[in-house]
């Protein structure tokens, strides 16, 4: 009986896992909304003097596309990120904590403008936060 209960509980947990991931993708408004707020993020990042200097040699459209795929995939959507890993793509940039925080603020602004609910914004930020250790050098 106990084994059956354990199995049933395990099955319930297994079944709810993808549902949690799916729902963040939905909560963010799906691919159209993710594409809009990510393009806006990239615009802000390229304009803001706190971050713009880092992107002087970057192809904006390519970066935006990679970021859309990454956010879509991380939130449980039907995309596949095909870019370089976070450590490798940022290691030579000498990115500061202040630059990282500025980009997080820009993402929050872009999601606010898109009307993404605050609690859903925080779920995405919680997924991105651990990447800081691969991105920030000092
Ligand atoms: C959670 C935060 C961040 C995420 C999720 C992120 C994500 C990405 C992704 C997906 C790429 C493309 C990798 C590839 O080329 O295959 C990239 C590249 C890059 N990121 Fe970030 N990034 C973050 C923070 C930052 C910050 C704070 C800066 C600087 C202010 C930055 C500057 C750059 C630059 C300059 C590139 C290189 C683009 C190129 O190839 O020209 N990133 N990032």
Secondary structure elements and pairings:
Elements: H1 2-27, H2 30-47, H3 60-74, H4 86-90, H5 97-114, H6 118-128, H7 132-135
Would you give an account of this structure?
This protein is mostly helical and 138 residues long. Helix content is 70%, strand content 0%. It has one domain (2-135): Globins (Globin-like, Orthogonal Bundle), CATH 1.10.490. The protein has 7 helices and no strands. The longest helix has 26 residues, at 2-27. The radius of gyration is 17 Å and the shape is globular. It starts with a helix and ends with a helix. The structure holds protoporphyrin IX containing FE (HEM). Protoporphyrin IX containing FE binds at residues 51, 54-55, 57-58, 63, 66-67, 70, 83-84, 89-90, 93, 95, 99-100, 103, 128, 131, 135.
Provide a concise account of the structure shown.
Helices cover 70% and strands 0% of the residues. 17% of the residues are buried.
């Amino acid at each position: 009986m106990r084994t059956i209960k354990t199995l049933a509980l395990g099955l319930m947990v297994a079944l709810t896992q993808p549902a949690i991931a799916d729902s963040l993708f939905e909560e963010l408004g799906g691919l159209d909304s993710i594409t809009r707020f990510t393009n806006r993020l990239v615009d802000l990042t390229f304009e803001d003097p706190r971050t713009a200097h880092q992107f002087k040699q970057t192809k904006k459209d390519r970066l935006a596309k990679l970021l859309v795929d990454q956010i879509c995939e991380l939130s449980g959507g039907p995309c596949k990120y095909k870019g370089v890993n976070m450590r490798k793509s940022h290691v030579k940039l000498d990115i500061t904590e202040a630059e990282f925080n500025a980009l997080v603020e820009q993402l929050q602004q872009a999601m606010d403008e898109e009307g993404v609910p605050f609690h859903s914004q925080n779920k995405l930020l919680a997924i991105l936060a651990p990447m800081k250790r691969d991105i920030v050098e000092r």
